[in-house]
Amino acid sequence: MSFHLVAETVRQRRTVYSFRPEPLPQELIEELLESACHVPNHKHTEPWRIVVVRGDAIERLADLRVELQRRRAEKDGKPLGNLGLFRAEVSQAAAVVYVVQVAADDEKRRQEDYASCMMVAYALQLVAWEQGVGARWNTGQLTRGALVREFLALGADEEVTCCLLLGYPAEVPPNWSHRPLEEVTRYIE
User: How far is CA 85 from CA 23, 29, 105, 130, 176, in A?
Assistant: First the structure.
């Protein structure tokens, strides 16, 4: 694979916020996941587990998203907001892919495994983008709490690192301006 191809994919990838109603073929999802799991992984622990939510389960997850927002608003004493928007955030996705980490007892190993799980999530975004599939990274309410754990049927040693809402983009947002490299880079010689 050419460096230019990888570099171009990294630069062109966008976070997609709205999806077309077309489903993603099972074969495509499997191909994306297979590619994404070829990331660096300290001691080859492969600590990630993938949970794919699709079909009718998407609507159940959308219901859960609304319930999570209701509970948050009640806890914070704030207005509910437009629950239809919270529902649509999930229901328009063709699939929601959860990257789950099997939590090691050792803290250093746990950190290394977390990094590998996040690399799976990023690799998934890149290979999806190359296939015309958009993704929206989420580490918010859809990834936390007892209701989410129950929905995903997580084991006691499993933790959600993030989820990615996937689908064919309805629109592609423009690129946002990044800080100049000089502001974020330091060389030691």
Answer: 20, 26, 39, 28, 23
Residue 3 in this model has a pLDDT that exceeds 70:
no
Name the strand (E) or helix (H) holding 98.
strand 95-102
User: In the block, which residue shows the tokens 């933790």?
Assistant: 159
Cβ count within 10 A of residue 156: 6
Residues 9-23 have pLDDT tens digits of 988 999 999 999 999
CA distance 110 to 115: 9
Query: Are 50 and 99 a contacting pair, CB within 8 Å?
Result: yes
Residue-range domain boundaries for the chain: 15-171
CATH 3.40.109.10 at 15-171, yes or no: yes
* Residue 173 clears pLDDT 60, i.e. is over it: yes
